[in-house]
Design brief:
101 residues; mainly alpha; 0% strand
C-alpha cells in the first residue's frame, strides 16, 4: 500500500509541474491536489516494479556468464531502461497519464 501511495504522490507532483504550479504538493490542501485515477496509479506502480525486476534479471543473467561487476551493473541499467520504455510506449495508449503528451 505504501508503494501505491508513493506512486500516486509522484504522479500528483508531475501534474503540478506540467501545469506550472510552483507550490510544493505538501503545501497544498487535500482538495487542491490533483486527482489521480486508480488506473494511472496502478500503471505507474506496475511499470516501476517491472523496471526493477527486469534490471535485477539482467544483472543476474550477466552475472551467470561471469561478466565483470561493471558489465553486470550496465546490464541492470539497460534492463530497467528498456523494459520501462517498452511498457510506457504500450501503456500510454491504454492508460494515458494526464500529464503525458
Amino acid at each position: 500500500m505504501g508503494a501505491y501511495y508513493t506512486s500516486r504522490k509522484m504522479l500528483q507532483k508531475k501534474i503540478l509541474k506540467a501545469n506550472g504550479e510552483k507550490r510544493a504538493l505538501e503545501k497544498l490542501k487535500e482538495d487542491e491536489r490533483p486527482e489521480i485515477s486508480p488506473l494511472q496509479t496502478l500503471r505507474h506502480f506496475s511499470t516501476m516494479n517491472l523496471e526493477l525486476y527486469s534490471g535485477i534479471e539482467m544483472y543476474n543473467l550477466f552475472e551467470s556468464y561471469n561478466s565483470g561487476e561493471l558489465i553486470n551493473c550496465f546490464g541492470f541499467i539497460a534492463g530497467m531502461m528498456a523494459s520501462g520504455k517498452v511498457a510506457n510506449t504500450i501503456l500510454k495508449r491504454v492508460i494515458p497519464y494526464e500529464h503525458e503528451d
